[in-house]
């Protein structure tokens, strides 16, 4: 006897309506990916004939590779926001997604038709992804030289905007809390924001290496780096600081408040990313806003084009940024 929607619903533990909407790729349905995959797998197991598709109408299945673990995501909403919006956008386009965390490349199903990779990747990891499929789109990682589509924020103009803002406020002594990080296979990833920051200040003749601090993109590292800078520099602490991401900015803000340093009159601060956490700290943090939703939607668009035209030349998309001023700048 042929399987029915009721059979699938019973085995998958969902309603018949949910089964019907999932099998018909209803983009308005709000359901988590585990449920979606369970229903689709059940339909295949029961050989549900109405779910069978011709080869030309095969649903695309794309792995979403997040370089962070689930725990790390909670400390950096930037990458979580990108991943979630990619999954949502892909679902609306009728694309099935398979989440993979912490670059656990061995868990990528070999039958995926594409990979959207979020975060930072070593050369060897890029080669591993290539063994699965050539249809790869990297997000927040410049892979154009390696021959793959990518989407990156406009770091260069973002840094110029920050420096110009501080200069407009009459501040010449400007520091930076930059990030240092490694891929999951321990390859060091340079911070492009730091490179552009140092080059810009050197060109203006106001670069001071003693005003450069480093963390690992976590809030605790931001707190420790800022606390150390306050203790070692004392009255010579710069009057403005640019911070490479929001978690470090929140940690640095705590250290500044503990030292009872006036913000923004004695120390102006600007973060990068503009996730929810910098909007609701006190004082609220001025930040360079990166359009994570736009980046995610564009990543899915690029993947759709790549799947349709796999032999086309790779492209690099630079996503614009802008400064949102709050209480940590004048």
UniProtKB/TrEMBL annotation:
The keyword Cytoplasm does not apply. Residues 3-59 form the HTH lacI-type domain. CDD domains: HTH_LacI, PBP1_GalR. One of its GO terms (molecular function) is DNA binding. The keyword Transcription regulation applies. Keywords: DNA-binding, Transcription, Transcription regulation. Coiled coil: none annotated. It holds the Pfam family LacI. It comes from the Bacteria. This is LacI family DNA-binding transcriptional regulator. It comes from Limosilactobacillus vaginalis.
